[in-house]
Design a protein that fits this description.
Elements lengths: L13 H8 L33 H4 L21 E3 L21 E8 L9 H10 L2 E8 L3 H9 L7 E5 L7 H8 L4 H4 L8 H4 L3 H5 L2 E2 L2 E2 L1 E5 L6 E6 H7 L7 H11 L7 E3 L3 H7 L12 E4 L2 E4 L4 H15 L17 H5 L3 E7 L1 H10 L8 E3 L12 E2 L4 E7 L5 H14 L6 H8 L6 E4 L2 E4 L1 H6 L13 E3 L4 H15 L2 E2 L21 H9 L5 H30 L4
Helix pairs in contact: 11-12, 19-20
Length: 562
């Protein structure tokens, strides 16, 4: 998908990406049993994995989509890339006939921004193309967990409910199993071939849709290569003769050279996420939070030397005064975009989408501006050890009470929204109506004000195609983004639980809630590394060791992905 807006919170995450790009990309406390899927249970206390021994027969057959050939094929887990100009007259058709039967489908989904009225040209055109009357119940994405919990606890559940991975704490997995339909009879195995665009969604993404031993979700796939890139001002680097650092020591040395507080220039923002990458710290952005089998023993990221070393290096950056003062505010820091554009700092770690969005944002007002992505090196200058992210993180579920005709209509919607870039259906889903929501000049589609206000956060949430990067307006950026993923993908390793939808027993749900705050306190000098070591020791006694045993049983029952 091609995002349309650039602003984002300072802390990189899948949630901030979705909230900021208009693409759309708080645990609920619970005491009820959670997911008892194909994998292990925990003596009645709940929890489990999506990847049990019977998972294969639940998954849809994979059939590659040959409607459109990407300019840059996927490699090492990267997105596919498109750089060519668009000719609307030659767009392919991936859905030759309406699959919808004219029924009505209600969809509740998180929304960032001001939702448009239901009766708008974008919604009307999409519904007409699909043959389904989709009625949107958009909810504030920032407080979605509150609304979600209330709706799922009621008897009035919409036909479709979109649930991001970060909203799946507490009782939500139990609700998914009890409230939503088994889509296996419609999609498992070769049945998915009735919906070719859904058949082209990678199998890894579908595996994350298994709950309670049933295929219940429709996924939004993503590349498993880390989405967090150390972005930098290449134009200023070139002008000043700065070299991209190739180790942790070189980074700190360069940061000191760049920084001149009196001139209001600092080297970077908070680089904690880059530190995780340089020191090979296990991924911890989504459950399972940093568990992996190492030398025959399950360990968590917080128990490793690499974790402490990454925190210490980040602390050194703050202590050296090379980090912009705004970063000390943590999650309350303002959007870094304006100060990055003004050259107040030259490096920050953010979602890969900002490589394009910052470029587009500055194209007319600052033509010399050039943002680029640094390759990540090992802290010692060698090859990095990067950990794979989960291959899907947002899912749409169908009400268990829905009739077969409603389910077919939902799948008709999903088959359209999962159409690949370069098709009429993709353009309609992501850009709206030509002339109303976007214009095309020299092969480049550009959204109008109305397009930016209406063609956001909606249909893409039902289902999406394989991870795609497409920027005909800045083809060099699209090419660089995909190639960055391919290079980093060659150093990316899948953890033991890669691809599994893990739900921990409810008593462990909040076990690690305080660690992110402690990390930030340490890196900003308010706490010491010894405080983290003490916190880890307490974590073990409060449930960490028992949680380790629980994860070990999952491995014993389901096997490892690595």
């Amino acid at each position: 998908m091609t995002p349309n807006a650039a602003s984002a919170p300072s802390g990189p995450s899948r949630r901030s990406f979705l909230a900021s790009t208009a693409v759309a990309t708080a645990a609920v406390s619970g005491g009820l049993p959670l997911l008892a899927a194909c994998g292990a249970s925990d003596s009645g206390s709940g929890g489990g994995s999506s990847s049990g021994k019977d998972a294969k027969k639940l998954l849809p057959s994979y059939v590659a989509n040959n409607v459109v050939t990407p300019d840059i094929p996927s490699k090492n887990g990267s997105s596919i890339g498109f750089t060519s100009k668009l000719d609307l007259g030659t767009l392919k058709t991936s859905v030759p006939k309406k699959l919808g039967k004219g029924g009505k489908v209600t969809v509740m989904s998180p929304f960032w921004g001001s939702p448009p009225k239901q009766d708008n040209p974008y919604y009307n055109a999409m519904n007409d193309m699909i043959g389904v009357d989709v009625e949107w119940q958009n909810q504030d994405g920032n407080t979605y967990d509150q609304k979600l919990g209330a709706v799922l606890a009621s008897s009035d559940v919409p036909d479709v409910v979109v649930i991001p991975n970060w909203n799946m704490g507490g009782k939500i997995p139990t609700a998914i199993i009890s409230k939503f339909a088994d889509l296996g009879p419609y999609l498992s195995g070769d049945k998915v071939k009735d919906y070719p665009n859904l058949a082209a969604i990678p199998t890894d993404a579908w595996r994350r849709c298994i709950f309670g031993g049933k295929l219940r979700g429709l996924p939004m796939p993503s590349s498993y290569v880390t989405n967090i890139v150390p972005l930098y001002r290449k134009d200023i680097f070139d002008k000043e003769g700065y070299e991209v650092p190739r180790s942790a020591a070189e980074f700190l040395s360069l940061a000191k050279e760049i920084t001149n507080a009196k001139a209001k220039r600092w080297a970077c923002m908070d680089m904690k996420w880059t530190a995780w990458q340089m020191f090979g710290v296990l991924s911890g952005s989504e459950k399972p939070l940093g568990w992996n089998l190492v030398d025959g023993k399950l360990i968590n990221r917080i128990e490793t030397d690499e974790y402490l070393e990454a925190l210490e290096w980040t602390r050194k950056l703050f202590a050296a005064g090379v980090v912009h003062p705004d970063a000390k505010l943590g999650k309350n820091a303002p959007d870094p975009g304006p100060k990055f554009a003004a050259g107040e700092f030259l490096i920050y770690a953010q979602d890969i989408s900002q490589w394009w969005s910052r470029t587009a944002e500055q194209a007319t007002q600052n033509p010399d501006f050039k943002i680029w992505g640094m390759d990540v090196y090992g802290h010692d200058g060698g090859n990095p050890q990067v950990w794979a992210e989960q291959p899907a993180g947002i899912f749409a579920f169908v009400n268990k009470k829905a009739s077969a005709s409603v389910i077919h209509d939902v799948l008709a919607v999903a088959n359209t929204t999962a159409a690949p870039y370069g098709t009429k259906e993709y353009m309609a889903t992501n850009y709206g109506v030509e002339g109303t929501h976007y214009t095309v000049k020299n092969g480049v589609p550009t959204k109008t004000t109305r397009g930016n206000n209406e063609v956001i956060n909606a249909y893409v949430m039902v289902a999406s195609p394989a991870a795609t990067i497409a920027h005909p307006d800045f083809p060099d950026v699209a090419k660089a983004q995909v190639e960055w993923q391919q290079r980093m993908g060659s150093f990316t390793r899948k953890s033991s639980f890669f691809g599994q939808m893990i739900t921990e027993p409810s008593r462990y749900t909040n076990l690690m809630d305080d660690f992110e705050t402690l990390e930030d306190d340490i890196t900003r000098g308010r706490k010491k590394i010894s405080d983290m070591q003490q916190a880890v020791a307490e974590w073990k006694t409060k449930g960490g060791d028992k949680l380790r045993d629980w994860y070990q049983k999952l491995l014993d029952d389901n096997g490892s992905a690595s």
